[in-house]
Amino acid sequence: MKALTRTRLILAAGALAALPGLAAAHSYTYVEGGFLNRDFGADDESGFRIAGSGDIHQNIALIGEYADTGDLEQISAGGLFHTPLNNTLDFTAGATYEHIEVGSFDDNGFGLRTGLRWQNADGRLELSPEIRYLDIADDDDTSLRVSGLYGLTPKVDLVAAVQAAGDDDRVEAGLRYNFAPRRVSAAR
Prior knowledge:
By secondary structure, the chain is mostly beta strands. It contains 1 helix and 10 strands, in the order αββββββββββ. It starts with a helix and ends in a 10-residue tail after the last strand. Strand 6 and strand 7 form a beta hairpin. The longest helix is centred in the N-terminal third of the chain and has 17 residues, at about 1-20. The chain has one domain: Lipocalin (Beta Barrel), CATH 2.40.128.90. Mean pLDDT is about 85; it is low at about 15-20.
């Protein structure tokens, strides 16, 4: 019985160790920005957002975002774990420190997120469904976010996203600049 358990553990560890060996299907070193419309409670305001990500390790990136829609400003900063599941699909999970200002009120909290990043074989189209959790002040919210990228050049993408939650719905549109060109899947 012990030999069978040990064999299973060795096989599982080998499978997990092989995952980072796959080439990530996506760039995690980029800057993006653009238009943001946010329906926050009774307020429906438009503004802008800028965000970025930078790999600090093969499977770890630092992430950050600043969003401003007039009365509502939000800053997010944290880390993101990412690993390829195959040549076109990555798994992501991250945590962020959150700071929000609404009028004269401001507070801090944290966010959690997990999702997938999928791209088609030529690498020009990407879809990313994600679940996000946000806990600020005495309020928490879980949202579903879906973003899409369409490659204009090897380093520039159109970006669009929708995010739906109880009191915080978002629509985004803009551009992303990738510091590394997107990868093209070997499987076509």
